[in-house]
Amino acid sequence: MSPSGFSGPLVPAINIVVLGESGVGKSSIVDKFLFNAQWVRYDAVGTSPFGTESTSDRFNVEVDGQRYFLLFNDINATPIRLQQPGLVHSFQDKSLNVADGVLLLYDIGDIQTFDHIIQWGWEYVCACRTGHSKFGCILVGNKLDLVQGENKEKRQVPQSLAEEWASMVGVKSFEVDRFDREKLQDVMRDLVRSVKWAERRNKEDLEMMRDEEDTKPMTVSEESKQGGHRRNLSLLQKVRKAWPRLQSKSRTAS
Ligand SMILES: Nc1nc2c(ncn2[C@@H]2O[C@H](COP(=O)(O)OP(=O)(O)OP(=O)(O)O)[C@@H](O)[C@H]2O)c(=O)[nH]1
Ligand SMILES: [Mg+2]
Questions:
Q1: Burial class (CB in 10 A: 0-12, 13-18, 19+), 43
Q2: How far apart are CA 77 and CA 123, in angstroms?
Q3: pTM of the shown model
Q4: For 250, how many CA atoms within 13 A lie in the half-sphere containing its CB?
Q5: Residue from 31, 40, 157, 178 to probe ligand 1 pocket by mutation (most atoms less than 8 Å from CB)
Q6: Counting atoms of ligand 1 from 1, which one is nearest the CA of 22?
Q7: What is the pLDDT of residues 221-237, one digit of tens each?
């Protein structure tokens, strides 16, 4: 994560990719969340409408007492999935590779958009995440308003099906529409929580790997290659790690 770069208190920035088939409402939900309006942004790829100080406020979201600055990039999955001739999508691959969080979007009234995002979409995201283990992610069904009340029969994706898939891959699932901004804000907060969770887990994994590396016995040839300096260094690291424990022991002993 990088700092926002805007004046005022430093707020961590979170890069979010909204990935979904054409027409599922990627632009609509981001516009509603950011501007409480429709059709603020027109182009599908790489749009970051943070031009002025006044609009930058709208990207701020508070989650569990901490403010975050959200940057959105919406990626239309359809041309990439269909590999349209001449389309270069290394830019999108890169965006997904560096994103802090991914919002997988489908249309509740169109089962194909769900099938594509949970099969092709999920695989595409995982393939782009080279070098990263865990990442923030949520599954979101859009256009809830169109499948409610007397239009119930227009629902093609049962909520339970989405929840089942989401829990299988370890993400949360939500249903929204482009009219309910409060709900969209809640959903974005959950995505930020998922990003923070992934960050913590990646850090823990890294620390565990380092510890294992430290305690792994060296072979004789490794020892002779690295000489005494490396060995002394790892001994020093172990002593340093144990130091607070030793101090508290000696305090309780005295
Ligand atoms: N009723 C309803 N219509 C929606 C909703 N979200 C989007 N739409 C409509 O669905 C159409 C497509 O929305 P967009 O936001 O352009 O979808 P997109 O995923 O950005 O589409 P591309 O940029 O073409 O990939 C538009 O006519 C929107 O007004 C929603 O929650 N409810
Ligand atoms: Mg769009």
A1: exposed
A2: 12
A3: 0.78
A4: 5
A5: 178
A6: 25
A7: 554 444 333 444 444 44
